[in-house]
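Everyone, study these two lines:
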Amino acid sequence: MQTPDVKTVARLYHSMLLIRRVEEYICEVYHTDAIKSPVHLSIGQESIATGICDPLEADDMVSNTYRCHATYIAKGGDVKQMMAELYGKSGGCAGGKAGSMHLIDMAHGIMGASAVVGTTIPVASGFAQAMQWDAKKGGKQRVMVAICGDGATEEGGYSETLNYAALKKLPMLFVVENNGFAIHTPIHRRQPNWSIRARVETYGIPTHFVGDGDVFAIREVTKNAVDAIRKGSGPQFLECTTYRWMEHVGPTDDHSTGPYRNLKDYERWKENDQIARLEKMLGEKEAARVKDAVETELKDAVAFAEASPYPSDNRLLKNVYAA
């Protein structure tokens, strides 16, 4: 793997730092009731969203889980609209009616997220099939990236979609963010074979694995996989092991509240923090420039959310029922 240039390092650092600062701000204000919905944070997992989204083109798409802040930001979603959505304001990406678990920005290729585990995966295959049809008519071959957690791999729709995508050679990259837990239950208590990718190989789908959260490795594997998909390889699969620093849902650290997590694992992953790694690579002056830009983006997003009004009563039923 080639050493990335400074411009690439700065771009990846900016993406990951923006994700973290937005979520750290959420942690700071959550107790005030400014945020109107439950939150599932990706602090510690930022390198996956950034590494996956950076090689994608603007008209490629991603589908997501309810832990969707990171991918939304990494794919270029409007952070002002995201913050307003969390505040329950009309300026939000879903008009303030959906909240943290249902972020969407179709203009930037971000399919609507869902709070129900695994449900976006088959929907993503429908988008991928439409992309395939468009390409067969002479259009550009776009790619759909379907992202899920390790818990979603135990849902029926996940296996059914893998099978269908392989059968139809759909232009899909499946990505599993494997943080080792389905809420509080570790994978070794849920699966006799801990290798998620080994099960995927039985569908004849090429698989890839990054086990240490290395943002450059994730980016390179994604780029190569997406290039192959555009050339007609059919679906590909990437499993990334990672570690969420915060509790499953909510803004606090839960390492002292129960026996389900190992503090040594947490400390090991914190030492491997990709944001700190890239900051050292950039040097003090360039890192400071990026930090200033990120803080400005965060400040502007908060100001937009605070200034945006709440939805009016006559919008409560809008987009709920088909006319």
Observations:
- The mean pLDDT is 96.
